[in-house]
Amino acid sequence: MGLRDLAKRLKASVEELDDERLQDRFSGLALTPLGELAARQAARVGGEITRTRIAPRSGINAFEITVSDGTGSAVAVFTGRRYVAGMEHNRAVLLEGVARSERGRLVMLNPAYTLLPH
Fewest C-beta atoms under 10 Å: which of 34, 86, 93, 111? Predict the structure, then answer.
C-alpha cells in the first residue's frame, strides 16, 4: 500500500470502505454483481445480509432478507416462513434464482441459497 492508497483510504467515508470490503469479499466467486442484476434472468449472486424482516404477502407470512455486495442490493423472499435457520444480520449468503422488479427493487422469490462461513 503506497502513500496514495493510504491517503485515499483516510479520505473515504465508512460506506465507501464497507462497499470496497464487500466487493473484495465476493470477487473471484463467479457471481453476478448485484449492481448488474437484471430482471427475469437466472443469476447466481452473493452478498451480506443487511436487513431481515417478516412481511405478509397475500395473507401468508414471508421472511425477507436484503443482501448487499458493495455494488447494489436485492431482496430474497422465502414465502410461508417466519425465519430461515442461519440467516442473520451480516451473514454472507449465495442466492440462485430469477429476480423480478417489484416496487422499484429486485426481488428473488424462494431462491436456492448457500450460507457462507463467517
Answer: 86
Tell me how far apart the alpha carbons of residues 104 and 115 are, in angstroms, rounded to a whole number. 26
Residue type (1 letter), 106: L
* All structural domains of the chain: 3-115 (2.40.50.140)
Q: Is the dihedral of CA 8, 31, 39, 58 positive or negative?
A: negative
- Digit-coded pLDDT (tens) for 15-36: 877 778 777 887 888 899 999 9
For the entire predicted model, the pTM comes to 0.83
- Is 110 within 8 Å of 78 (Cβ atoms)? yes
Residue 117 has which C-alpha cell? Answer: 462461513
E strands, the chain, where?
42-54, 62-68, 73-79, 92-102, 105-109, 112-115
Cell of 3: 502513500
Q: Tell me the residue type at 114.
A: T
Residue 67 CB burial class (10 angstroms; 0-12, 13-18, ≥19)? buried
Q: Which residues are CB-neighbours of 56 under 8 A, at least 6 positions away?
A: 62
Q: Give the pLDDT mean for 26-47.
A: 90
